[in-house]
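mind reviewing these tokens:
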Amino acid sequence: MQSVDALRKLGDVDRVMIEHRVRAMIEYREAGDIGSMLAHVAPDIVCHSRGHWSLVLFPRPVVGKASVAEAYRMLNIKYENLGSEVHEFLIDGDRVSLHRTTSVRNRGTSQVFTFDVINFARFRDGLIVEFSEYADVAAREPMLDVTS
């Protein structure tokens, strides 16, 4: 049996690894580096985009690395990711909650949209197995024009 101090140190290592992987995912996403981003997810990853955003791009959960890669490629065709500012980052065991503000540019119109996003992630064996995104629908409403 491990001491409380030993268990606490193991928990700290896990927290550092989890934070590093989530921040790396954000950086890879901003760079459009889908391959490196997916190095941090499990083969059976499940991604959920919630709200009106899902009406255009992801109307249901996206399951598996290949499907997630295709979904992000489709997203990159329409929008250029201009970066995110992380406001809140919470880790509880194998779960992460993240509040950030992100900006994207519509590649067709060059219009820039900045909006808040809440993300939730769950880890298993050091990899993300579930990722959910809830974006501020009111701020995104003009983005829903699929013709541009």
DSSP finds five helices and six strands in the chain. Residues 4-31 form the longest helix (28 residues). Residues 4-144 form a domain with the Nuclear Transport Factor 2; Chain: A, fold (CATH 3.10.450.50). Strands lie at 41-50, 62-63, 79-92, 95-106, 112-124, 127-135.
